[in-house]
Amino acid sequence: MCMCIKGRLPNSLLHSDRDPIPDVPAIYFVMPTEENIDRICQDLRNQLYESYYLNFISAVSRSKLEDIASAALAANAVNQVTKVFDQYLNFITLEDDMFILCNQNKEHISYHAINKPDIMDTDMDGIMDTIVDSLFCFFVTLGAVPIIRCPRGNAAEMVAVKLDKKLRENLRDARNSLFTGDTMGTGQFSFQRPLFVLADRNLDLATPLHHTWTYQALIHDVLDFHLNRVSVEESQGSEASPAGARPKKKNKKSYDLTGADKFWQKHKGSPFPEVAEAVQEELDTYRAQEDEVKRLKSIMGLEGEDDGAISMLSDNTAKLTSAVSSLPELLEKKRLIDLHTNVATAVLDHIKSRKLDVYFEYEEKLMSKSTLDKSLLDIISDPDAGTAEDKMRLFLIYYITSQQPPSEADLEQYKKALVDTGCDLSSLNYIKQWKAFTKMAATPASYGSSGVKPMGLFSRVMNTGSQFVMEGVKNLVLKQHNLPVTRILDNLMEMKSNPETDDYRYFDPKMLRGKYQNLVDYTKARQGKRVLYGCSELFNAAQFMKQLSQLGQK
User: Fold this and answer.
1) Which of 86-95, 161-170, 204-213, 369-378 comes out lowest in average pLDDT?
2) Domain identity same for 130 and 36
3) DSSP-assigned letter for residue 317
4) How far apart are CA 489 and CA 501, in angstroms?
5) Region Disordered: which residues (predicted)?
6) Type and span of the H or E element at 161
7) What is the DSSP string of 522-538?
8) Which has the higher per-residue pLDDT, 182 or 267?
9) CATH, residue 474
10) Which long-range contacts (CB under 8 A, 24 or more apart) does 442-446 make?
11) Which phi-psi region, left, alpha or beta, contains residue 407 (left: φ > 0; alpha: ψ -120 to 50)?
């Protein structure tokens, strides 16, 4: 939580020690927690600033507003509290079509927090309220009241019921409703309203554990990637340290991967071999453009001349002038090429050292029930194939996707091999309990047909002068197939009758009653589709494994 003081100081933390600056206004941007409200009241009593602009990330309750009013009155600072805003920004947008609910204290609404066996009803209620508050903020910002669909009998249904109630209560107060300017269409039968599908993580536990093959997913899996910023260790070159000297520390460098990066926007969902080739193509193009500028300068005898002199040449030098004027664009292109060269090289190091291509292909076959060309035990026992965590992830996927669990004798053999490689079996203990429960409650998730097509090995460097030595790495081409959540979304958007979704609950906060309504006309009238993906927390496989292990600890 932070605040800024207009015109004088940069952003500062609310709970840091601050000296009075009585001649400037201050802007607060905070969550309306008890701790933060108490500190605001303390600032009022200490007369720290000339005036106060209070911006709350989510709606502040009446009781907390009264606490602020009481403090302002006691400090004779009522007139100094200039504005109080509910900003409804309790979520984080990572991309145009993707958001998460929580960054700080995300363990409070994590998979582990929701599924731990000793959770109290009051704690669960608090978790659901936190999630609903963030989702309500999201839809206020979106400016639209959704139609809500969810499965029955799990946390998703609890969230749906509470969110429907919160939206209804706001719509009921027409004068103060936050949706009166519904930007996606007005009226309860508007054809532009979004469909909001709530899914429980237990629907599909295999996908978060699955080794990946696309650029963005690999970065999230194997590198330090958080809130669109990736950190990689810089290469120190091939120079060896002098005998007896301490090894050089590797420096970490951070890069922001955002929508402004055209290469990232185009290739973040591409298979890694395609990305490596694209980076090399961009580098070759840049070098050709750079060489052209040097050639033109050489022809004109302008080596060492400044750009001002070049631009004053006659019309015969227009070509050179155009080339030089594109230098800023070339420099930005070079910056992005260097960025993705460094990031892709770091990813490739993990692929080669851990044989991630082998894991990805094998797991795809497990999930699609395809024929296996190697025994699972061989991969687990191979000391050169991945880390202990890689092996544990592979076995958990096998266990989750198997129609029948292995026999006790086979399971003991697998467990011994896993322990011998350094695996912690706590996550397996939880998955066994989860599997036994889901077997009684529902059929296992289906992952469709095989989603990968092997194209052989990269036998050498991709092309002459390439930055990426892909020798020994499998050239795997992805085939389109739908994961469980994607399939459920398709069923609901297209109004398909399917056992997976026929029993899903329906909520329309704009309706006087919550009964199911016919959406055939709505479906026909829709001109296009746009899917926004949101989650309570964004974790990689290692973080998810940690939560599973916590749940499986005895």
Assistant:
1) 369-378
2) no
3) G
4) 9
5) 234-253
6) helix 155-172
7) HHHH-------EEES--
8) 267
9) 1.25.40
10) 444/400, 444/401, 444/403, 445/203, 445/204, 445/206, 445/401, 445/484, 446/484, 446/487
11) beta
Cβ(267)–Cβ(341) under 8 Å? no
Report the phi/psi class of residue 18: left, alpha or beta, with left for phi > 0 and alpha for psi in -120 to 50: beta
Q: Specify the pairing of strand 229-233 against strand 224-226.
A: antiparallel
The residue written with tokens 């509470």 in the block is 162
Q: Supply the pLDDT for residue 326.
A: 67
Beta bridge partners of 3: 12, 28
Tell whether the model's pLDDT for residue 35 goes beyond 60: yes
Residues 379 and 477 in one domain: yes
Both 284 and 158 in a single domain? no
Cα 4 to Cα 11: distance, rounded to the nearest angstrom:
4
Place of tokens 């963005």: 216
Does residue 44 sit in the same domain as residue 66? yes
Dist CA 209 CA 431 (whole Å): 12
The residue with tokens 């009013």 is 69
- If one counts the domains in the chain, the total is 4
Cα dist from 549 to 4, 80, 116, 147, 554, whole Å: 41, 52, 11, 36, 10
Residues 326, 218 share a domain: yes
Dihedral sign (CA 368, 270, 92, 252): positive
Question: In a 10 Å sphere around its CB, with 0-12 CB exposed, 13-18 middle and 19+ buried, how is residue 99 labelled?
Answer: buried
Average pLDDT for 64-84: 93
For residue 342, the domain's CATH number is 3.90.830.10
User: Percentage of the chain with pLDDT > 90?
Assistant: 51
The answer for residues whose C-beta is within 8 angstroms of residue 103's C-beta and 6 or more apart is 92, 227
How many Cβ atoms sit within 10 Å of the Cβ of residue 198? Answer: 22
- Residue keyed to tokens 């960025």: 339
pLDDT tier for residue 41 given thresholds of 50, 70 and 90:
very high
- At residue 7, the pLDDT reads 42
| CB count in 10 Å sphere of residue 107 | 13
Residue among 445, 540, 436 nearest 111 (CA): 540
CA distance 391 to 363: 11
Residue numbers of the domain that contains 211: 207-234+253-300+322-347
Measured CA to CA, the distance from residue 321 to residue 308 in angstroms comes to 10
